[in-house]
Amino acid sequence: MNQPKITLESLGPGSSHHLGANFLNQQLHPEFPDSAVGVNFAVYAPEASAMMLCLFDNTGVEQRIPMYGPEKGIWHVLVKGVQEGQVYGYRADGRWAPDEGLRFNIHQLLLDPYAREVKGVINWQPAVYDYSGKERSQWSFNDQDNGHLLPKSVVRTDQFDWQSVTRLNSPMKTVLFTRAMSGALPVSTPIFRKPCGGRIWGCVILSLLII
């Protein structure tokens, strides 16, 4: 997706309370894309010294945006103008000390561990790795950029329009126990009315509920 260039004036710290990429309103609460003020990006990386959000257009051109933080180990930034379908990733800066379990490399593009969708495949080349050298004793820092070789995260919303359906507001003393086993409730089960067979409504038939 070809996104407009993001300017510094369109950025803000956003929130550290919503990991991943989430559409937020002015109160920094989850919102539908059409009424959101922007997309909040947040990722947990307590050992990083800096984090960059990387936005890609449909030609693969990358724009890097510094993130705020860390706040309790979480880096975050709010970006206005981002639409659903935006391709992105992260870059993490910090110590590169493999023997200590630290392998930060700003040249390496990272997937969002909280992404709702991943696009693309790995193109296995030496630049994919954060190190150069075959033997561990010969490893050295790899400064080749791999942004064009790796799959990327995609901004998606998990907001769902329930329309006229409302919460049951069942009292807390009511406890429902459900059982779901493969093959235990086939579509041919006699108690299923035909419209319910194979559908989620089949799980709320009274004779299947134990209260």
Give the key terms.
211 residues; mainly beta; Immunoglobulin-like; 5-stranded antiparallel beta sheet; 14 strands; 0% helix; elongated
Let me know the number of strands: 14
At the fourth level of CATH, the homologous superfamily of the largest domain is Immunoglobulins
Cα-to-Cα separation, first versus last residue: 49 Å
Helix content: under 10%
Please tell me the total number of domains: 2
Contiguous uncertain segments of 5+ residues: none
CATH class of the largest domain: Mainly Beta
What is the arithmetic mean of pLDDT? 82
Beta-strand content estimate: 25-35%
Count of runs of 4 or more consecutive helical residues: 0
What is the CATH fold-level name of the largest domain? Immunoglobulin-like
Order of helices and strands: EEEEEEEEEEEEEE
Q: Name the structural class.
A: mainly beta
Which architecture of the largest domain per CATH? Sandwich
Overall geometric form: elongated
Topology:
Elements: E1 11-12, E2 20-24, E3 38-44, E4 50-56, E5 62-66, E6 68-71, E7 74-79, E8 87-93, E9 96-97, E10 102-103, E11 117-119, E12 131-132, E13 140-141, E14 152-154
Antiparallel strand pairs: 1-7, 2-3, 3-7, 4-5, 4-8, 6-7, 8-14, 9-10, 11-14, 12-13
